[in-house]
Amino acid sequence: MDTDGCFTIHKYKVKGKEYQYPKIVFSNQSEPILDFVYRGLLYLKYNPKRTLKYDVWLHNQNEVMRYLKEVGTNNIKLSIKKILGGVR
Predict the structure, then answer these.
(1) Which of 34, 51, 54, 59 is most solvent-facing, going by the fewest CB within 10 Å?
(2) What is the mean pLDDT of each run of 10 residues along the chain (88 residues)?
(3) Burial category of 66 from C-beta neighbours within 10 Å (exposed 0-12, middle 13-18, buried 19 and up)
(4) What CATH superfamily is the domain 5-86?
(5) What gap in Å lies between CA 82 and CA 88, rounded to an integer?
(6) Domain ranges of the chain
């Protein structure tokens, strides 16, 4: 995850109200690696999605928070404290 993964804040507006949610995406062109990440997340009781050809996503906000708390990361542009404290 630390080399081919990315944390992003999904922002959008509905009727003038802004919403923000953290998401995790893992991108790789190797099908065996993508399958390994997908099945690994399932094994850890996450609900990953294969939304694009080379991506595995965690879309659920609670799962993203859980991942950051339980697994963590050493490669993140935003600090975990900022992600956990700044997004509702």
Answers:
(1) 51
(2) 79 91 91 95 96 90 89 64 55
(3) middle
(4) Homing endonucleases (3.10.28.10)
(5) 11
(6) 5-86
